[in-house]
Design a protein that fits this description.
The chain is mainly alpha-helical and 90 residues long. It contains three helices and no strands.
Length: 90
Amino acid sequence: MGGVWVAAGVMLVAAAVVTMSRLLMGPSTLDRLIAVDTTVAVTMCGIGAWAAFSGDTTVTYSLAALALVSFVGSVSIARFRVPDIRDGRR
């Protein structure tokens, strides 16, 4: 069973690294928005995996808080985002 936790941890770290690279390299604000949402989702998966591994359910309240904050943040950014201007065109 220990191999499953190691594999889950390795995959979560790999997902976080790929997401952070997209966050830093993203050419547009929407790329960065998706990267931030994915980072929050990977964080939520990590918290859920930790709760399953440790058997401690007190950390699950943070999952609900992260889900609500992420949803409200994504909707507000998508609603009030100004389009990127490239080469003088919209």
